[in-house]
Amino acid sequence: MKGSKVILDTNIWVSFFIMARLPELKTLIVDNELTVFTCHELIDELRDVLKRDKLKKYLHETEETYTDIHFDLTEFFTIEPRFEGSPDPKDNYLFDLALQHEAHYLVTGDKKLLAMESVDDVQIISLRTFEDLMSDIM
Asked: Residue 21 and residue 71: Cα distance in Å, rounded?
């Protein structure tokens, strides 16, 4: 829905960066008036992933440039570690961010997270599903 509060998992950001789809991402966010949340933990994970040697050949900008783009497209929030129900404990922070700041969607490519479908009022959906949902309302 327009005006939705969204968290994009690290794998979604990296996918957009690798596939050179930043203009599409910006359009998706702006046209749908999305508020995309981030936090220290998400930024740290993004930086770590972008530094991996196996990804460097697919990236056309510096890690700093991608991090700056991430900052430009998101609103920063601080979280307190509370959630403990993620299949991968390293992803608990995503749920803390979503629940503590009332996000509507957690968009991810992680199959274990997608299997959860929702946590409280946060829907866990794939990028394809999210893009379809956003295009249906435009």
From this structure: 17
Q: In terms of DSSP bridges, do strands 75-76 and 118-119 run parallel, antiparallel, or are they unpaired?
A: unpaired
| 134 neighbors 27 (Cβ within 8 angstroms) | no
Distance CA 65, CA 71 (A): 10
Cβ burial of 63 (10 Å; 0-12, 13-18, 19+) is middle
Report the mean per-residue pLDDT for the chain. 94
For the sheet containing 75-76, what is the strand order?
A: 75-76, 35-38, 5-8, 105-107, 122-125, 118-119
Task: For the chain, state the CA radius of gyration.
Answer: 14
The one-letter amino acid at 53: D
Backbone dihedral region for residue 83 (phi beyond 0: left; psi -120 to 50: alpha; all else: beta): beta
Which tens digit of pLDDT belongs to each residue from 52-73?
999 989 998 999 999 999 999 9
